[in-house]
From TrEMBL:
Recombinase domain ranges (all copies): 67-148
Molecular functions per Gene Ontology: DNA binding; DNA strand exchange activity
Residue stretches in coiled coil: 219-253
Name of the molecule in the record: Recombinase domain-containing protein
């Protein structure tokens, strides 16, 4: 029974892989023909644009398209994303979800400036004539350049710490938040464990020294390195033995 379940699971995973590959090939072929290959989310994909299934193109949404155009033009003229957000919220402008338009919605809209100029992209393939342009290609280029400059001049650009996402709290097991200015701490609470962790906040430099020292000790200790290598080899031999046993059973069944 266990062997039969293993074979069925393997066959199912192989079939699922083939279906995914076939689906991707079909979508790529559609994009190369100039057709839109996939769906665009809960709200049709973009603020002010709605996907029309009949014509397979994006059409303007009355009211929303004017708001999208205002955001794009104001940003191209030098207004900040935050000032645009506050201005629209003061006028009680709603987003696609029916709630007050949010800063994140405007950020996403600006990041798709080229779409509003009439150009879609799927898998690196540019699709034209499927979106009614809201702005010109020149304005879209200005917006993209501003966004690029903002990323490059942001505090965290190119400064990701080598141990970000790799440090976990020894008390609760949650991932550590790494902040150079405010210090490092665990996430405190999560959906899996509502009890707040009382682990202390550690200064960034102190945590960096402790981690560096621990890594140097782990890799400089000859006995520890040999022990890890032996453990890895034993695990590999055990896995190979299990695979060979399964293969022998399959050969016998066939």
């Amino acid at each position: 029974g266990e062997l039969l379940n293993f074979v069925r699971g393997w066959a199912s995973s192989l079939e699922a892989t083939k279906i995914r590959e076939r689906s991707l090939r079909n979508k790529k072929a559609m994009a190369e023909r100039g057709d839109i290959p996939s769906g665009f989310g809960r709200y049709g994909g973009y603020v002010g644009l709605q996907y029309d299934k009949a014509t397979r193109t994006f059409k303007h949404i009355t009211g929303q398209t004017d708001v999208a155009k205002e955001i794009l033009l104001r940003y191209a003229k030098g207004a900040s994303c935050l000032s645009i957000t506050k201005s629209l919220q003061a006028r009680n402008v709603l987003g696609p979800s029916g709630k007050l338009i949010a800063h994140g919605t405007i950020n996403r809209l600006l990041s798709h400036a080229r779409v509003y100029a009439g150009f879609l992209k799927w898998g690196g393939i540019e699709i034209r004539d499927k979106v009614e342009p809201v702005i010109s290609e020149e304005i879209a280029s200005i917006i993209e350049k501003r966004l690029k400059l903002n990323r490059e001049h942001s505090f965290g650009f190119g400064q990701r710490r080598w141990f970000s996402g790799r440090v976990f709290c020894g008390i609760c097991g949650r991932r550590y938040v790494i902040q150079q200015r405010k210090g490092c701490r665990c996430n405190g609470t999560s959906n899996l464990n509502a009890i707040k962790c009382n682990s202390p906040r550690v200064p960034y430099r102190k945590l960096e020294r402790l981690l560096t020292k621990a890594l140097l000790f782990a890799y400089a200790d000859e006995e520890a390195v040999i022990a890890r290598a032996m453990e890895a080899r034993e695990n590999w031999q055990r896995e190979m033995g299990e695979l060979q046993g399964r293969q022998a059973k399959l050969d016998h069944e066939l």
